[in-house]
Design goal:
By secondary structure, the chain is mostly helical. It has a domain of 55 residues. It has three helices and no strands.
């Protein structure tokens, strides 16, 4: 199986959902009260932060030092026109 690069956004999404599930499991086992009014806002804030971090990481990895992001590679059609 071919390895793929680490995806930070997917990892954070999974960690947030696993953390929410673990919190509910612990609350059920230890008879803690979970205030449901806080669950959705906390999950949405964590997912929004993960999205921002993922977008910034994608921007940083797509532009390398010394590369011109506006420069495009010549296509095969351009090579046919020159010949």
């Amino acid at each position: 199986m071919k390895r793929h690069p680490f995806d930070l956004t997917s990892f954070v999404f999974g960690a947030v959902f696993a953390g929410a599930a673990a919190a509910y499991l612990l609350a059920a086992q230890l008879s803690w009260e979970v205030d449901e009014r806080w669950v959705l806002p906390v999950v949405l804030i964590a997912l929004g932060a993960a999205g921002i971090v993922g977008a910034l990481a994608g921007l940083r990895s797509s532009t390398n030092a010394g590369d011109d992001p506006t420069e495009t590679a010549p296509s095969d059609l351009d090579a046919d026109r020159v010949s």
